[in-house]
Design a protein that fits this description.
single chain; alpha+beta; five-stranded antiparallel beta sheet; 3 helices
């Protein structure tokens, strides 16, 4: 089992890099070529969501992306540092007015897009932040002697 960990500053311009890295590692793990666009889109949505949560809550910690090549599946976990961010946007009582509704709507839309792209997705949250775990079947190439 091989693992790649990527951490990047919570800036929108770094999301593209995360998508490219995810696609490259997915290809190496044996994810079907027809699914690579879905991997890129899902990772882009998850990373954009994490960046948005960090920006809206003033968190300077990096966004964390962990890519795991397993024997039969390829998994990606995107983590943010916003406590309780696994469901709709966190901070309900702290945010006010239209901005809160817009943020919640964008967050829910991003999660809906991810759920539509990925069959195996799990969204969780806790005091240390939120996590979106996604996985796809993989068929690694045989190792040649």
């Amino acid at each position: 089992m091989a693992t790649v960990e990527l951490r990047f500053s919570a800036l929108p311009e770094h999301v593209r890099t995360a998508r490219l890295v995810a696609a490259a590692v997915a290809r190496r793990a044996g994810v079907d070529e027809a699914v690579l666009d879905e991997v890129r889109l899902a990772v882009g949505e998850a990373c954009s969501r994490a960046v948005g949560l960090h920006e809206s809550h003033g968190i300077t910690a990096p966004v964390r992306v962990v890519l795991v090549e397993d024997e039969k599946k390829f998994s990606i976990e995107v983590g943010d540092e916003v406590p309780g961010s696994g469901g709709a946007a966190a901070g309900g009582a702290e945010a006010e007015g239209v901005g809160e509704n817009d943020a919640e709507g964008e967050d829910e839309m991003g999660l809906a897009v991810i759920s539509g792209l990925v069959d195996d997705v799990e969204v969780s949250s806790g005091e240390d932040g939120g996590r979106i775990r996604m996985s796809w079947p993989a068929h690694p190439a045989p190792v040649l002697p």
